[in-house]
Amino acid sequence: MTLETTYILIITSEFPPQPGGIGNHAYNLALYLSKQDYTVEVIADQRSITGDEERDFDTALPFLVTRIKRTRRRSFMYLQRILTTRKRCRTASHIIATGKFSLWNIGFLNVRKAAKTMAIIHGTEVNLKSFFLRKSIDLALQKFNTIVAVSNYTKGLVAHLNKKVVVIPNGIDVDQWLANIAQQPLKGQPSLITVGRVSSRKGQLNVIKRLPELVKRFPELHYHCVGIPTEAEYFIKVAEALHVGSYVTFHGSVSAAILKQMLGATDLFVMLSSESVTGDVEGFGIAILEANALGIPAIGAKGCGIEDAISDGHSGLLINGNSTKDFETALVTILSHKATYRMEAKKWAQQHDWTLIINQYLALLE
């Protein structure tokens, strides 16, 4: 793969500045490929109403972003994305698809044989409950030269395809997380935190259900939930019904600076993720690594992509997300060996820095 002949096209269902794990991954992939001096273009939707946020964000990037203009009818956007993708694919040497519609878009597009295609799968898009949708994703994936899964859990969701799947874990920009951290006191001894959309998938409700027993041992414990409050109203009602409402705070979305302050002041990151009724699953758990970068160990649920995001017994502990006893034992264990877990968490985060992760993608693109 030479710089002169390489034009890498990334088609993604999400992209900053709007939130989303798939978008965050696509952004870093594009950024670090461009840092290797490759020509990179991203095709993504405009998700804000006016497009001003995207326009300001895209202008500062070292690579081209083509936005599909937001329209009232989603079908028009889908059509425009297909037409734009078809046009760009004529000259691309490498095509990377990430996100459900992007997999369909490239999988069923008549891409010229000279172009190398890569699908990146995160979890939910290969765990759809509808037979028709699930089958259509399977058929699309069969058309790709390379499939990358962000965790072994996600890889297992497509084991029936009998295709080679390479696991490349999600990465973070460690330096970005360590820069400009101000001190911010946080309520609770110990203080626990979950970062992510307040939803069944992220597992905040599983933590709340464990609190009645935990506060007996840790009467000053406090649980902080940071993220878009999608299901917060219902979760608050559950907490109140369990008489632990005063032990939980929903902060909503916060700025990156405030998030760093809160993470730096917390004792433990917690993510007891579970599958939603629609098949939404945690494919990895990038927020865990972001906390690790600041030396914050994590407790996470087994049976999902979090198993790849936590080095069990080192950067944190993996437990049965429905077991209060397991949660309490893990909490006591980490708090009793806090210095060791903090050190190991930082080491684990460093191993997932994008300066290292990008090399695994470069090897596949050769």
Would you give an account of this structure?
The chain is α/β, with parallel strands linked by helices and 366 residues long. The strands form 2 sheets. Strands 3-2-1-4-5-6-7 form a 7-stranded parallel β-sheet, with helices on both faces. Strands 10-9-8-11-12-13 form a 6-stranded parallel β-sheet, with helices on both faces. The protein is built from 15 helices and 13 strands. Helix 1 (21-34) crosses helix 15, helix 4 (100-107) packs across helix 5 (131-142) and helix 11 (286-293) packs across helix 14 (338-350). It has 2 domains: 3-168, Rossmann fold, CATH 3.40.50; 176-350, 3-Layer(aba) Sandwich (Rossmann fold). It starts with 6 loop residues before the first strand and ends with a helix. The protein is globular and about 65 Å long. The chain has helices at residues 21-34, 52-59, 74-89, 100-107, 131-142, 152-156, 174-178, 204-217, 232-241, 256-265, 286-293, 306-309, 324-336, 338-350, 354-365, and strands at 7-12, 39-45, 64-68, 94-98, 116-121, 146-149, 165-167, 191-195, 222-226, 248-252, 268-271, 298-301, 316-319. Keywords: Transferase. This is Glycosyltransferase family 4 protein. It holds the Pfam family Glycos_transf_1.
Portion of residues within helices:
40-55%
How is the biggest beta sheet arranged? 7 strands, parallel
Run of helices and strands: EHEHEHEHEHEHEHEHEHEHEHEHEHHH
Strand content: 15-25%
**Beta strand count:** 13
What name goes with the CATH superfamily of the largest domain? Glycogen Phosphorylase B
Per the CATH scheme, the topology name of the largest domain is: Rossmann fold
Number of helices: 15
CATH architecture of the largest domain: 3-Layer(aba) Sandwich
Q: What separation lies between the terminal Cα atoms?
A: 5 Å
Pfam family, one: Glyco_transf_4
GO molecular function, one term: hexosyltransferase activity
InterPro entries: Glyco_trans_1, Glyco_trans_4-like_N, Glycosyltransferase_grp1
Organism: Psychroserpens burtonensis
